[in-house]
Design brief:
- By secondary structure, the chain is mainly beta.
- The chain has one domain: Sandwich (Jelly Rolls), CATH 2.60.120.10.
- It is about 5% helix and about 55% strand.
- A hairpin with a 2-residue loop joins β1 and β2.
Length: about 110
């Protein structure tokens, strides 16, 4: 068993204002993300199914052109290849779960 505290995992900048501590298993990637208020998430898509858990803060999220504002603990599911973007209205904490594993995040962590 491989165990560590979250603070022992190196924080990586995924986008400006988005800093994540990333955990990889054989089948999923889990990212604990701290987001600075005002930071935009550029529109993108990926083959990974993604579950976003907003833990704190207010986040405006757009998926396939539909925008909603979330300001309490919320779960958002992003299907594979759906275009999505967003903006942290305030400082936010989220937990992202991706399936399959985000190999690009693994490569980022190895730099």
């Amino acid at each position: 068993m491989n165990d560590s505290t979250l603070n022992e995992i190196r924080s990586l900048e995924l986008f400006p204002g988005f800093n994540a501590r990333i955990i990889h298993t054989d089948h999923v990637t889990i990212a604990h993300v701290e987001i600075k208020g005002g930071s935009p998430l550029p529109e993108h898509s990926h083959v990974h199914e993604q579950t976003i858990q907003l833990m704190s803060g207010t986040f405006e999220f757009t998926i396939e052109g539909e925008t909603k504002r979330f300001d309490k603990p919320t779960v958002i599911v992003v299907p594979s290849n759906f275009k999505h973007s967003g903006k942290a209205v305030t400082d936010c904490r989220i937990i992202d779960v991706f399936c399959p594993v985000r190999e690009d995040f693994k490569a980022l962590a190895s730099k």
